[in-house]
Amino acid sequence: MSVGHGGQTGVRNSPTIFNSALQVAQFWDGRARDLVEQAAGPMVNPVEMASSDPLVCSVLSSMPEYVAAFSAAFPQRKKPICFSTTRLALAAYVATLLTPDSAFDRYLRGDNNALSAEQQGGLRQFIALGCVQCHTSVNVGGNGYFRFGIKHEPQKLYRPVADIGRSAVMDTLTEDYVFKVPTLRNVQLTAPYFHSGGASTLSEALEVMGWTQLGKKLSVQQIKQLQAFLQSLTGKLPQLEVPQLPVATQRTPSPQ
């Protein structure tokens, strides 16, 4: 779990930020409809950044460099720095974090040599077992909601009893333990797995998913092939340059 304000940790495993713009909604329970709405959550969450709408604006407005940058980005705004523009700026940045040109992408474009024989075997398993029923679209997931435990109930390590998922934010949903299907792009880089972070390795996650979602005891060979295929979903990561952040001024509120 990610560490937040005062060393606190949340109750869910933080999902990858890469390719999040391609998802149907944000957070494991889909409570944020887009990246703009999602951007507000961590800032004001007492466990994460423990800030507030006024405090965010006060901090940014206290530094001339931020004032200049926001004024350039939002020239039509009478008040360029506000909670709304901060969310828009964060969302615009996150939308750039795409990871194209994975081996699987090249395979789909017609390069038959992009996947090894083992990876192609894993792709056939992925289709034949029924994984594609949930992990669909260009993002190989992130576009629907399914119950975690369709065929068999997961162990509490993987599905904590108290976290009932999407039904906690959707009054019309009567079934508990429904979560957004995660994207499988770059999945070999995003351990631990599940909303609980209960599976520490990809092979463990595959074994759990085979049993709980498909009702199948996957063989060692099947898991090996599936893991090989999933490794082909690792794309080109964006080149991230750490910026020189503005320095606090005498007007900058002190951290709480």
The poorly predicted ranges are: none
Radius of gyration: 21 Å
Please give the largest β-sheet: 2 strands, antiparallel
> Helicity, in percent?
25-40%
Number of domains: 2
What is CATH's topology name of the largest domain? Cytochrome Bc1 Complex, Chain D, domain 2
How far the N terminus sits from the C terminus, by CA atoms, comes to 22 Å
CATH class of the largest domain: Mainly Alpha
The helix-strand sequence is HHHHHHEEHH
Helical/strand content category: mainly alpha
Number of strands: 2
3D shape: globular
The spatial strand order of the largest sheet comes to 1-2
CATH superfamily of the largest domain: Cytochrome c-like domain
